[in-house]
Amino acid sequence: ALKSVPAAPATVAEEARAILSRLGVPDQVFAPAGRPATSPITGETIVHIRETTPEEAKAAIGRADAAFKAWRKLPAPKRGEFVRLIGEELRAAKDDLGRLVTLEAGKVTSEGLGEVQEMIDICDFAVGLSRQLYGLTIATERADHRMMETWHPLGVCGVISAFNFPVAVWSWNAALAFVCGDSVVWKPSEKTLLTALATQAIVERAAKRFGGVPEGLSEVLLGGREIGEILVEDHRVPVLSATGSTAMGRQVGPKLAARFARAILELGGNNAAIVAPSADLDLALRGIAFAAMGTAGQRCTTLRRLFVHDSVYDQLVPRLKKVYSGVKIGDPRAEGVLVGPLIDKSAFDGMERALDEARAAGGIVHGGGRYTDGACAEGYYARPALVEMPEQTGPVLRETFAPILYVMRYTDFDQVLEQHNAVGAGLSSSIFTLDMREAESFISVAGSDCGIANVNIGPSGAEIGGAFGGEKETGGGREAGSDSWKAYMRRATNTINYGKTLPLAQGVKFDV
Ligand code: UN1
């Protein structure tokens, strides 16, 4: 008998629209004259989205502020129950939402699903956290006194996220913010409005099941930069987490500082790896390939600079070139494809510019250029580029959000450490070595200056359990695990006198 094959939707747009409707995104968000939501896979427009007006944005912040005032009174473990339900809904929606990430952001299938898994993981983490928002009890110098600290909810948490992790970044912030007693107003990238709307529909389902979630606890603002600015400037938003370029952070940071709001900045990375003489080269090869080419080089943790010791350069680099020329580029939905499209034309143009600059600086470029086989001609697919550079100059010093890996030789460990740290960004880093002294030195006080420093793992693909973020031009913010939650709460130090006298600290006398 013939096996009946279910009819596959004909186009990316049709499939995306079917997912939106399955996930319960209401039709009111669509408007023929709105902002087109496109797919980088084919460049086609999926739907048009009605954007949030400035007045609506301000009203949403007002609702979120009111919601905060009710939400903060709920015991934290109850707030955790809401996040647990979000995690359940995400589990149920994983295939659909992961697929939508693929259709809208162009991630390959396993990375689209991985992104949703990351959301589920942070929900689990936050549920546990909701019973662990601990403060300290502190020894006081005064008799019959007690001193302690209490962590209180802070207010509306603004989230500005980028296209490359269109939904996970929201969840790292929102899952913590909700258990911490904050409300959340999210301005997703204007390039990924559909996954944001789908996420909001999932949250609303969890809210319905929970019952009693105040209206406005989770708001989404759809639009460009002007809408983001409203969030940055509104004094009712005491903490704002912004993910994007260093240029964006330079604009946002001072504005938040001017009104004394807290900034959680996750900006550019220019991440490096060192391959030392003792490195396990098979392992390094795989680590480098994923970190440099995965997500088509569009992670802020993507590996961009590779320092290879002179003694292993001629073993490793030819193998790496082979991997580069053999990697499967194409439609991210297709089995076996590892490198999908760049998000748009400007990303591709930026890559070309950087490669031209690298050539002018004496670099030898392997790969690069547009990949147009078959249906790929409709999108901006790039061949990943491996560039052998004589030294760390020109485009090597900055982040280009595309799959370019600059490779350089080194001979001296101390010198390479210096070079490793000689860039503006300070997000992620790694060393491949079996030498314990090198490994420990790399992660020591005098080693990598980044927020993430790995050994025998590439710089990308961090788990949510650790604090995520970086130093210098990366902005200094921390999200996700460890004690990142503290940024979403305010700390009160309480001193209680249960005695009958009033001893003053530091022995001060003030007898009236
Ligand atoms: C980003 O690129 O914005 O470590 C963040 C990683 C992911 C997060 C990347 N967990 O690659």
TrEMBL record:
- What does the subunit section of this Swiss-Prot or TrEMBL entry state? Homotetramer.
SUPFAM superfamilies (alphabetical):
ALDH-like (SSF53720)
Arranged from A to Z, the UniProt key words for this protein are: NAD, Oxidoreductase
Asked if the Swiss-Prot or TrEMBL record annotates the protein with the keyword Transferase, the reply is no
Provenance organism: Microvirga subterranea
Care to name a GO molecular-function term for this sequence?
Answer: aldehyde dehydrogenase (NAD+) activity
- Domain Aldehyde dehydrogenase, chain residue ranges per copy: 37-491
PROSITE patterns linked to this entry? ALDEHYDE_DEHYDR_GLU
Oxidoreductase keyword on record: yes
Q: What InterPro entries does the record point to?
A: Ald_DH/histidinol_DH (IPR016161), Ald_DH_C (IPR016163), Ald_DH_CS_GLU (IPR029510), Ald_DH_N (IPR016162), Aldehyde_DH_dom (IPR015590), ALDH7A1-like (IPR044638)
So what EC number does this one have?
A: 1.2.1.3
Which PANTHER family does the record cross-reference, listed alphabetically? Answer: ALPHA-AMINOADIPIC SEMIALDEHYDE DEHYDROGENASE
By its UniProt entry, which Gene3D superfamilies does this protein fall under?
Aldehyde Dehydrogenase, Chain A, domain 1 (3.40.605.10), Aldehyde Dehydrogenase, Chain A, domain 2 (3.40.309.10)
Q: Where is the active site?
A: 266
The family line of this record is: Belongs to the aldehyde dehydrogenase family.
What name does UniProt use for this protein? Answer: aldehyde dehydrogenase (NAD(+))
